[in-house]
């Protein structure tokens, strides 16, 4: 009975500890999305200005950021 109670307490407390990381994960995702959007906008601007090499470089960086 004692082992069952200890196991139950570990399971209950460990699940609440993992639930606290959700906000950190959301923040990390938001940071990546913001950085990818900035790279995308810069890439589009470079494309419109005729600098296709720089545009491609920036857009590839944005894609790689989203893949990681």
What is this structure's SSE topology?
Elements lengths: L1 H18 L2 H27 L3 H16 L1
Helix pairs in contact: 2-3
Describe the structure.
The protein has 68 residues and is mostly helical. It has a domain at 24-68. The chain is 90% helix and 0% strand. It contains 3 helices and no strands. The chain has helices at 2-19, 22-48, 52-67. Helix 2 runs antiparallel to helix 3 (52-67).
Shape: rod-shaped
Mean pLDDT, all residues: 86
Number of strands: 0
Q: From the alpha-carbon coordinates, what is the Rg to the nearest angstrom? A: 22 Å
- Main beta sheet: none
Percent of residues in beta strands: under 5%
Main features:
0% strand; single chain; mainly alpha; 68 residues
Give a quick summary of the entry.
This protein is mainly α.
């Amino acid at each position: 009975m004692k082992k069952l109670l200890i196991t139950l307490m570990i399971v209950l407390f460990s699940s609440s500890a993992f639930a606290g990381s959700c906000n950190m994960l959301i923040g990390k995702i938001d940071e990546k999305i913001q950085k990818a959007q900035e790279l995308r906008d810069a890439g589009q601007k470079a494309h419109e200005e005729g600098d296709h090499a720089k545009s491609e470089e920036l857009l590839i960086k944005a894609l790689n950021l989203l893949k990681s």
